[in-house]
Design goal:
The complex is a heterodimer of chains A (215) and B (792).
Chain A lengths: L1 H35 L7 E7 L4 E3 L6 E4 L4 E4 L4 E3 L7 E4 L2 E4 L10 E6 L35 E4 L2 E4 L3 E6 L5 E10 L12 E11 L8
Antiparallel strand pairs in A: 1-13, 2-3, 4-5, 4-6, 6-7, 8-11, 9-10, 11-12, 12-13
Chain B lengths: L1 H19 L9 E9 L9 E4 L4 E4 L5 E6 L3 E8 L6 E7 L3 E3 L3 E3 L9 E2 L7 E2 L7 E4 L1 H7 L4 H5 L5 E5 L3 E5 L7 E5 L2 E2 L18 E8 L3 H4 L6 E7 L5 E11 L3 E11 L3 E12 L15 E16 L2 E23 L4 E25 L3 E20 L5 E23 L2 E16 L5 E17 L2 E12 L3 E13 L4 E12 L3 H5 L1 E3 L6 E3 L4 H10 L12 H15 L5 E15 L2 E13 L2 E8 L5 E7 L3 E13 L4 E14 H8 L4 E2 L8 E2 L14 E11 L4 E10 L2 E2 L15 E2 L2 E12 L3 E8 L16 E9 L4
Parallel strand pairs in B: 1-7, 1-8, 14-17, 32-36
Antiparallel strand pairs in B: 1-4, 2-3, 2-5, 5-6, 9-10, 11-16, 12-13, 14-15, 16-17, 18-19, 18-47, 19-20, 20-21, 21-22, 22-23, 23-24, 24-25, 25-26, 26-27, 27-28, 28-29, 29-30, 30-33, 31-32, 33-34, 34-37, 35-36, 37-38, 38-41, 39-40, 41-42, 42-45, 43-44, 45-46, 46-47
Classes of the chains: A alpha+beta (215), B mainly beta (792).
């Protein structure tokens, strides 16, 4: 009878052991999982980055340059505005965007523009070719077609095209995806032509580990 | 009813006599002899003679004579019909061995003006014989509506949308004004701005009717007849001397005055028409100095005359002269880069068009009609913007277009159920403008059409046109139509047709630089030369030209691509229509359509200037589709009330855009927001400027005793895309849609002492205003009076 009871208790203890082991292992595995997942990349948002273009007087033909503005430079890895003497990735002036590569710099920065959804783009698509600024065209916003242009122009208003993503390989060889979100100060619902323009709001996701993934 | 019963008894008797009794018991047949002629005594061959109640049909011989044998005496219905004539029914009493009938005279269908149309097949035909989607706006409806201009009357019709873009243009089956051919008495009106032909240039006081073909008609009319043809037919004078005068005053200090004098006798006729319309215009946006519609005075002079050289031949000459000066004021901001100054300018604009058409019509024998015509037209605009403070000229824009068409058309009627039409012609066009390079083009064409009534209830037509344009090459536009009458109530119509539009002057020859913003547009033929000029002028491409030869090479290479030229825009279309007619009091028409448009012409940038602005040119790109259904019904409740209702559903899309959406390549970003989201198919709202839903409801009341006419109309236009706000080039989201609107219009007319007509009413009673449709300026009241010498 006691033997019988003992075996019963033994069985219960065995079961408890077995369950605890499973739970323990589960916890350990899940904890390990958590520990091994890197933090997801977060988009850097830059608001009201002022880079106005040159101002022309159009009352004469050909138009006369009245104010010449400075190119403004930005470094993606430090998320900061810099000067051309430092390590910059892109320069902006009006709708012109240059990269620190090709004819415009020695940083080896390359870029391209693709169609897609910024939030949904998880990696640099297979077969994407990056280009440097050349005498013919800048890498960003090639001038020969609407296809590659990040903005559209109508009734005096510059509107960044949603669905255009600029992919950049920076001076350190890391990839990032960039979306220009508006071209006027504080992103007004109804911008006024030529007022508070050349003021960029943009966001980007920078992958510091050299891979092509943006997750 | 009793006749039919008698007839049935006769048939039984006839069978009984023929088969069961010796011939002598029954009377032998009666021989019926007669002939068919037209109103002038000319005999009609191949006329069909039917005896109701006994199933007997014979045809008249080539001299118009016929013989029928009838076996039973009694009363019969005789029905006689022939193509081109109105059918006639007669009661005859058959007795004796031989009966010579009185001459049977068939009235000309052409005399029956209300039902005769010209535009559908380029020959006179009865509207019931038309097998393509067709709309006729009658004189009655034009008069009842109390309108002044063509755009106003057209916007009340089912499936016709007025879209304001550089003038009041019309849209048919989702195709814009630049694809619609506008004719006055069969000849094209020229003078378009950005593709739109402004319909407010056409006064309607002297219009007899408006004929509208929906769908492509390039097989007969050539270029531009891709979406349809609108033919405005002016009045012919009635016999004797005729005088019409009238005036109307309406809101916005708009004054209309018309005078018409006509005379007609056997040998000749003429008609003179003058109209003056002046208005202060109106302003829907008080924040700007310039008005939505500026102050204007429009003068229209028209004449029409015809001389009958012989019963077989006539010579006619008609023409039009139109002038419309406009005055407006505007603030122009000029910037020297540091300060922006706004200065007041006066904007003087004037447009003038004239045309003249001599024409000869010659009937050769009984079965051939030859028409030869020479049409000349000229359109000019001048716009001068002057600074008010010192009278200095800010901008001057001049434009002159000339058009000449020589055409020969031959219609053959070999038998009464065949019609063969063919023609050939030559067009010379030239343009002379401050924005364009001067240029001249010519094109030649031939066309044919063959119509065949295979059976009484089935007819068929096939046609085609070949155009050869000096600059744009060859185009072939075929057409096929079939119509089948199931019975007297139901008719099925099918048509397939092709349309094309040759690129216009602007797309080829424009050489324009925007004076305030600084971008340039070059027509394809101007691209190479234009780029060279920009290089020469120092407006070099991206950075310094001396150190950057490649950018210039790139611009030159793109200019060479543009220089390859443009293909004509083309379309293929299907229409399937069903007409149901219970009786004269209830009619329902439905039509399903689909237009596939290829090689749509759009702009692209060929270079970027030093000032960051682009140099644009044109190229063929997208393939579009417009499709839908249109339903229309009229009901005559009694002699006094007539109701009609119409509705159009329209679906339109760009095939390339659909592909990009499916591939996740298009996003949208509402204005003021910064996050972009993926566009899925259900977000896509189709092409800009197209309303998915539109319709109308009309009530006409007519009291002959009181000489009173009341006409009430509700016109609905559903929401449509007005523009691309988020820069993705396509229409998505409510923020890019203009609100739909309804206008309610009514008009009361009362005739006094038979010759005088009073007219009062309100257009847009609900005071609807839509910021995206400037042709809807709010409530308009009007009051008018008309005098007609000949009205009895």
């Amino acid at each position: 009878m006691i033997n019988h009871l003992n075996t019963k208790i033994m069985n219960i203890i065995k079961k408890i052991y077995f369950l605890s082991t499973i739970i323990f292992l589960g916890v350990v595995i899940s904890c390990n999982d958590k520990d091994e997942t890197p933090d997801p990349l977060v988009a850097v948002e830059i608001k009201n980055f002022e880079a106005p273009g040159d101002v022309y007087d159009y009352t004469t033909n050909p138009p006369v340059l009245v104010i010449e503005n400075e190119m403004k430079y930005f470094d993606f890895s430090t998320e900061m505005e810099v000067t051309s003497s430092g390590t910059w990735d892109i320069g902006m002036k009006g709708t012109d965007i240059i990269t620190n590569g090709g004819i415009n710099g020695s940083g080896g920065v390359q870029a391209t523009t693709i169609s897609g959804i910024f939030d949904n783009l998880s990696e640099v698509p297979q077969g994407t070719t990056f280009a440097s600024d050349t005498e013919t065209a800048n890498a960003i916003n090639k001038n020969n077609d609407f296809e590659d242009r990040w903005y559209s122009y109508a009734a005096g208003i510059i509107t960044p095209v949603p669905g255009k993503i600029i992919l950049i390989k920076d001076s350190q060889g890391n990839y990032l995806k960039l979306e220009i979100q508006c071209y006027y100060k504080d992103c007004p619902t109804e911008p006024t032509p030529a007022v508070d323009n050349g003021v960029y709001t943009f966001r980007y996701i920078y992958q510091p580990n050299g891979t092509m993934s943006f997750d | 009813m009793s006749m039919v019963t008698v007839g049935k008894t006769h048939i039984l008797l006839f069978i009984f006599c023929t088969y069961f009794l010796p011939k002598t018991f029954c009377q032998t047949h009666t021989e019926l002899n007669g002939f068919v002629s037209d109103g002038n005594g000319k005999r009609i061959p191949f006329a069909k003679i039917q005896i109701d109640s006994i199933d007997q049909v014979v045809f008249s011989n080539k001299d118009g004579y016929f013989t029928i044998n009838i076996f039973i005496q009694g009363k019969y219905y005789l029905k006689v019909s022939a193509r081109g004539y109105q059918p006639v029914k007669k009661i005859i009493t058959v007795s004796g061995e031989k009966l010579n009938l009185d001459p049977i005279i068939l009235p000309d269908k052409i005399k029956e003006l209300d039902n005769v149309v010209l535009t559908a097949a380029r020959i006179t035909q009865n509207i019931n014989d038309v097998s393509i989607p067709f709309l006729l706006i009658s004189k009655d409806e034009i008069e009842r509506s109390g309108y002044l201009r063509l755009d106003e009357i057209l916007q009340e019709q089912t499936g016709l949308i007025v879209n304001s873009d550089h003038g009041e243009g019309i849209q048919i089956q989702g195709l814009d004004s630049e694809y619609i051919l506008i004719l006055i008495d069969g000849e094209p009106l020229i003078g378009r701005t950005a593709g739109t032909l402004d319909l407010s240039r056409i006064a309607i006081n002297n219009i007899d009717r408006i004929e509208i073909v929906k769908g492509p008609s390039s097989s007969l009319y050539g270029s531009s007849a891709m979406g349809g043809v609108i033919n405005v037919i002016t009045k012919n004078p009635p016999y004797g001397f005729n005088l019409n005068i009238g005036t109307k005053y309406r809101s916005f200090n708009t004054l209309n005055a018309s005078a018409e004098i006509g005379y007609k006798e056997e040998k000749y006729q003429f008609n003179l028409f003058y109209n003056r319309l002046s208005s202060d215009g109106y302003d829907l946006d008080p924040s700007s100095l310039e008005k939505t519609v500026p102050q204007y005075v429009a003068n229209t002079y028209q004449f029409k005359s015809k001389l009958n050289i012989s019963p077989q031949a006539n010579f006619s000459i008609s023409g039009r002269y139109y002038t419309e000066p406009q005055i407006d004021y505007e603030m122009i901001s000029l910037s020297d880069g540091l300060t922006t100054t706004k200065t007041k300018h006066i904007d003087n604009a004037e447009r003038v068009d004239w045309n003249i058409l001599p024409k000869i019509e010659w009937k050769v024998g009984d079965d051939m009609l030859i028409t030869a015509r020479q049409y000349l037209s000229d359109y000019q605009t001048e716009r001068k913007i002057i600074r008010l403070s010192d009278n200095s000229l800010f901008n001057l824009d001049l434009f002159t277009q000339k058009f000449s068409r020589t055409e020969l058309q031959i219609d053959l009627y070999p038998q009464n159920n065949h019609i063969l039409t063919f023609g050939l012609g030559n067009i010379n066009e030239s343009v002379n403008s401050t924005r364009y390079a001067d240029s001249t083009f010519s094109s030649q064409y031939v066309f044919f059409q063959y119509q065949w009534d295979l059976q009484e209830n089935l007819n068929f037509a096939i046609g085609g046109r070949y155009d050869n344009h000096e600059a744009y090459g060859e185009n072939i536009s075929p057409k096929l139509t079939l119509a089948y009458n199931f019975n007297n109530h139901l008719k099925l119509k099918f048509s397939f047709g092709a349309g094309f539009k040759a690129p216009d002057f602007r797309q080829l020859l424009l050489d324009f630089t925007n004076p305030t913003v600084g971008y340039s547009v070059l027509g394809t033929a101007m691209a190479v030369q234009g780029i060279e000029q920009l290089i020469e002028r120092g407006e070099t491409f991206r950075f310094d030209s001396l150190t950057n030869l490649n950018a210039i090479d790139n611009a030159r290479a793109n200019a060479q691509v543009a220089n390859h030229g443009l293909k004509a825009e083309r379309s293929f279309s299907f229409n399937l229509g069903l007409n149901y007619r219970l009786n004269e009091e209830l009619k329902i028409n439905a039509n399903i359509f689909r237009n596939n448009i290829y090689n749509l012409i759009d702009t692209w940038s060929i270079a970027q200037k030093n000032n960051n602005q682009f140099v644009y040119s044109y190229r063929n790109i997208d393939d579009l589709v417009t499709q839908g259904i249109e339903i229309e019904s009229t009901i005559n409740l009694n002699n006094q009330f007539k109701l009609s209702v119409g509705y159009q559903f329209l679906d339109s899309f760009d095939k390339t855009v659909l592909e990009q959406i499916d591939n996740g390549l298009i996003a949208y970003r509402p204005p003021g927001e910064i996050i972009s989201r993926r566009v899925i198919r259900s977000d896509y709202q189709g092409l800009f400027g197209r309303s998915k839903h539109s319709g109308n409801f009309k009530i006409a009341y007519k009291n002959d005793k009181l000489h009173l006419d009341v006409f009430i109309r509700a016109i609905y236009r559903g929401r449509w895309g007005f523009g691309d706000l988020d820069g993705n080039q396509i229409l998505v989201g409510n923020y890019e849609l203009a609100k739909g609107y309804t206008t309610l219009n009514f008009n009361v007319q009362k005739r006094l002492k038979s010759k005088i007509l009073f007219d009062a009413g309100v257009n847009n009673l609900l005071d609807t205003i839509n910021e995206f449709e400037p042709s809807v300026p709010g409530r308009i009241c009007f009051l008018g009076i008309k005098y007609n010498l000949n009205k009895i």
